[in-house]
Amino acid sequence: MMRSSMVEVLRQDYIRTARAKGLTRGRILLRHALPNAILPIIAMIGIDIGIFMGGIVVVESVFGWPGIGQLAWQAIQRVDIPVIMGVTMVSATAIVLGNLLADLVTPLIDPRIKLR
């Protein structure tokens, strides 16, 4: 995803303008292209945390690793409601914190986006 985002940004007019002004390739990449290419990645991090939390059940079950995914799976099999609720709360908290972190980092990278 990062590569495709960077390729798309490098085709923009402002990158062409920066090259025409004689800026070095490194300066163009670090100061102009990277901040604009990383914004979609940061937005996806919050969404990906939820996907990771869902996939952890499968990974821990397949490899036999002890963890929250295996705990959740065993609780579901035993219909252990308090443990299921606890795992759900931990997962929801991780997703909310991931989205919050992504929302707080975005204005640091793109000054056009302001926190209210």
Automatic annotation (TrEMBL):
Question: What Gene Ontology cellular-component terms does the record carry?
Answer: plasma membrane
Membrane topology annotation: Multi-pass membrane protein
Q: Identify the domain of life.
A: Bacteria
Report whether Transmembrane helix shows up as a keyword of the record.
yes
What the entry lists under InterPro entries is as follows: MetI-like, MetI-like_sf
Transmembrane annotation, as ranges: 37-63, 83-106
Ranges of residues in domain ABC transmembrane type-1: 1-106
Q: Which UniProt keywords apply?
A: Cell membrane, Membrane, Transmembrane, Transmembrane helix, Transport
**Where does this one sit in the cell?**
Cell membrane
Signal peptide residues on this chain, from the entry's feature table: none
**Biological process, per Gene Ontology:** transmembrane transport
Belongs to which family?
Answer: Belongs to the binding-protein-dependent transport system permease family.
Under which name does UniProt file this protein?
ABC peptide transporter, inner membrane subunit
> Could you tell me which species this protein originates from?
Salipiger bermudensis (strain DSM 26914 / JCM 13377 / KCTC 12554 / HTCC2601)
